[in-house]
Amino acid sequence: MEANLSADRISRIEERLRESLSPSQLTLEDESHLHAGHAGARDGRGHFRLSIVSEHFQGVSRVKRHRLVYAALGDEMRRDIHALVIEAFTPAEWDARPQA
Questions:
Q1: How far apart are CA 84 and CA 47, in angstroms?
Q2: Helices (DSSP H) in the chain: which residue ranges?
Q3: I want to staple 51 with a disulfide (CB 3.0 to 4.6 A). Which of 27, 40, 61, 88 is the partner?
Q4: Quick one: pLDDT band at residue 9, thresholds 50, 70, 90?
Q5: What is the domain-level CATH number for residue 48?
Q6: What whole-number distance in Å separates Cα of residue 55 and Cα of residue 41?
């Protein structure tokens, strides 16, 4: 049951990001299991790590990129997300990053 809840939550979050930011790359990881027992985890909201690449970030500061992500997520931030780590890139930044 919990795995389905997590998959549904991730699907909703990804859908909102795709609709608003048209990313060429999107990776969303649920890291809630790493925060078991944490006060923020008790309310059922999740901890996530997002990596997103979008033309919408071109010429936009890091803070404004995060605001664009928060705006795209809307009420998901209050309902399903307790913590969100965001890595937001333009396509050129993504292509220029060192490969692992």
A1: 6
A2: 2-21, 62-73, 76-79, 91-96
A3: 27
A4: confident
A5: 3.30.300.90
A6: 33
Could you give the count of Cα atoms lying within 13 Å of 71 in the half-sphere of its Cβ?
Answer: 9
Domain that holds residue 48: 2-96
Residue 69 CB-half CA count within 13 A: 28
pLDDT of residue 46: 82
End-to-end CA distance of the chain: 35
Residue 89: strand pairing partners: 53
Stretch 35-40: mean pLDDT: 57
Residue 14: which H helix or E strand, with range? Answer: helix 2-21
Contact 49, 88 (CB under 8 A): no
Q: Side chain identity at 48, as an amino acid letter? A: F
Tokens of 26: 């999107």
Q: How many domains is the chain built from? A: 1
